[in-house]
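Input chain follows. Return structure tokens only.
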Amino acid sequence: MIGRLTGHVVAQGDDGTCTIDVQGVGYEVTVPLGTVGRAHREPDGRAVLRVHTVVREDAFLLYGFASTEDREAFRVLLSVSSIGPKTAVAILSALPAAELREAITRKELARLTSISGVGRKTAERILLELPDKIGALPVAPTTTAARLPPGTAAKAKLLEGALANMGFRPAEVERAVEAVRDRIPAAELSDLVREALAFAGR
């Protein structure tokens, strides 16, 4: 089984797949929205994805995640009988691991049913079956802002707040902030917002 891939992301599809080149071999991986932007980068630019492998008689499928916590959340979601990989990826596209834990802990049914592909019955099963299993997941997400030096982090948080107020989902906000992180120390906030908007809706 493949548990981790480190390589250059050479393609991203609108269907949630990306191709990561690992020493000349291209692996097609299905990822939640925002995963590539949040993934750890090696000094040479290679992305690190934590991988869950599904082996079937007719397919060998890879699902990639920015963190071990997101991968574990994916596995926890699969333990719900009505949730398959496609729905689990959709859930984590809207709610990365820490936010999923928060939604379950607070029993936010509406937050879950707002996700495409998650009906009321599925959301109720999540709230019923997962509170104990979700306990190992982190309480708060590690955002780009949290990984930056204090002075730069303050501006990054303002950027996150501005994008969130525009209605972008947390995963979209994180992807956009990560995309412009090198510009954060020198650029004006208004310029950062404009540049980040080019990435937030992708």
